[in-house]
Amino acid sequence: MLNQFEQFLTLIADFLCGYPLFTLLIGGGIFLFISSGAVSLRRLPAAIAELRKKHSGGEGQISSLQALASVVAATVGLGNIAGVAIALVMGGPGAIFWMWVSALVGMATKYHEGALAIMYKGHDSKGQPQGGVMHIITLGLGENWRPMAKFFAIAGIFGTLCIMNANQLAEATMTVFVPASDIESGWLAAAGATIGMGGAAFGRLLIGIVMATIVAAVILGGIGRIARVASILVPFMVGLYLLMVLYIICTHLAQVPEVFASIFREAFNLQAGFGALAGIAIIGARRAALVNDAGIGTASIMHGASRNNQPVREGLIAMLGPAIDSGLVCTLTATAILLCVPEISAIQGLKGLEVAMTAFGRGIPYGQYLLMFVVVCFALSSMFSYSFYGSTCTSYLLGNSAVRWHRYFFIASLILFAVVPLSAAVSLCDLFYALMAFPTMFAVLRLSGRVRQATRAYFDKSKTK
User: Fold this and answer.
1) d(C-alpha 333, C-alpha 263), whole Å
2) Rounded distance, CA 372 to CA 376, Å?
3) Is the pTM of this model over 0.70?
4) Whole-number Å distance between alpha carbons of 296 and 293
5) Which residues sit opposite 122 in a β-bridge?
6) How does pLDDT run across 354-381, given as a tens digit for each residue?
7) 79 Cβ partners below 8 Å, 6+ apart?
8) Which positions ≥6 away from 393 have C-beta within 8 Å?
9) How far apart are CA 252 and CA 38, in angstroms?
10) Out of 58-72, 304-318, 357-371, 419-433, least confident range
11) Model pLDDT, residue 276
């Protein structure tokens, strides 16, 4: 019965996250990119300049920079490691090119999300400022669209449960630190047998409990504590990861040109036909959706908590997110894997972190342990921010008093998803992300004209100063 449910779930997720999601996120992102006058390219210097400015004057709980750090903390997670590895196994090197395309158009989408989050900022049941697609829909499109806003909030509660992060962190910890003998016949096997579980499942259960305890210590302190932790953790973990990949590149310099040549060559490889080409593009876009969240709607929740009162300035900062996660970090991961695991195309099955661990273990002395440290930072930072996303959706639906119950639910879910099979976790994650994407992109596309007007007015005003 459970296997049948898993197969049905995978079937639905594969359908929604295939051509429908690809068309929506990439097609919609291309429209926003063109209609905004290539904002992600033309306004990139202005976006970087905004990082040096202080934004205040509006309602909110955190700064714009803290909002960006918290969004990046959520998106620079296991998707940048496990997700990229899965994309390479499923679609080959060419899938990475389509992740880059998704990053470029995703920046345009995130620009609109960030601007609309400030333009249509709502309030919770206690009168505190609150952002998100729910408020963009009701305030921007009108009360008649409230059912769609509630649909997004429901999907958001489940889509932000860190399904894949909890699952892959448990897998990585078991792979790196637990000997096979303990799982098969050692203390884990004996302890698991007392409650009717196998050694592997019991080990993942213990890891889930530890994860939940650490996350609880941060998220129960609210958005302020989450933002402070993210502001410290994000620069550190991205910087360390960059140094690790630079070491691999420097020790494999002769192979680097071929790695990037294979990415472009396989991205447009027509030898297997247009169907194969479309499949590779969809795999890259689908994994990128899990990496940068552009068009999913989560970024608008965090940026809506910013004290910035100028929509365009918030949009400029918001669009830097995909440049960091899908642009920089995913490229680092792909480069390391392709340099150290040249047999990637021959790997069978759905494997994520195992492939990445192999690559870093081959490329750096004790690299699997260094990567494990980074993985823990990535995974935990994602969990911190995603708990806030889900809490905000809960507050919109059930009122502020229900937020603490969501936090308890979120913490408990980490233990559950640490144990479930990877294929089920990936399908669940993809499915709820797709369900969040449809109302998000509908609202963003419908309101894109207002963002264009605000953008034109902002930069015309800047020219006159």
Assistant:
1) 13
2) 6
3) yes
4) 5
5) 130
6) 788 888 888 888 888 888 888 788 778 7
7) 164, 287, 290, 291, 325
8) 132, 134, 152, 153, 154, 156, 157, 160, 301
9) 36
10) 419-433
11) 41
% of the chain beyond a pLDDT of 90: 14
Is residue 275 very low, low, confident or very high in pLDDT (cuts 50, 70, 90)?
very low
Which of 226, 200, 170 has its CA nearest to residue 392?
226
- Tell me how long the chain is: 465
Which is nearest to 263 in space by CA: 242, 284, 247? 284
Q: What is the pLDDT of residues 279-302, one digit of tens each?
A: 545 555 555 555 677 888 888 988
Give the model's pLDDT for residue 169: 79
Residue bearing tokens 């806030």 = 388
* Average pLDDT for 173-183: 71
Which helix (H) or strand (E) is 299 found in, with range?
helix 298-303
How far is residue 364 from each of residues 100, 188, 294, 360, 368, measured CA to CA in Å? Answer: 26, 30, 33, 6, 8
Three-class SS state of 1: coil
Q: Which two tokens stand for residue 78?
A: 């296991």
Which pLDDT belongs to residue 48?
87
Contacts of 418 (CB under 8 A, 6+ apart): 166, 167, 169, 170, 204, 205, 207, 208, 211
Task: Give the rounded percent of residues in the chain with a pLDDT score beyond 70.
Answer: 82
Vertex 21: Cα angle to 15 and 25 (nearest 5): 170
In this prediction, residue 459 carries a pLDDT of: 87
Q: How far apart are the first and last CA of the chain?
A: 67
CA quadruple 249, 251, 256, 257: dihedral positive or negative? positive
The residue written with tokens 């593009």 in the block is 281
Residue 361 vs residues 89, 90, 149, 371: alpha-carbon distances, Å: 18, 22, 46, 8
In contact, 329 and 72? CB cutoff 8 Å: no
pLDDT digits (tens, 9 = 90+) for 200-227: 777 888 888 988 898 888 888 777 777 7
More confident position, 73 or 449: 449
Detail the DSSP E strand segments found in 304-452. Answer: none
DSSP 150-171: HHHHHHHHHHTS-HHHHHHHHH
In whole angstroms, how large is the CA radius of gyration of the chain? 21
What CA–CA distance (Å, rounded) separates 307 from 224? Answer: 13
Specify whether the CB–CB gap between 321 and 338 falls below 8 A. no
Across 177-199, average pLDDT? 70
Alpha carbon distance 292, 280 (integer Å): 18
Among 91, 383, 363, 81, smallest CA distance to 214 is for 383
The 3 state secondary structure assigned to 194-254 is CCCCCHHHHHHHHHHHHHHHHHHHHHCCHHHHHHHHHHHHHHHHHHHHHHHHHHHHHCCHH
DSSP letter at 371 equals: H
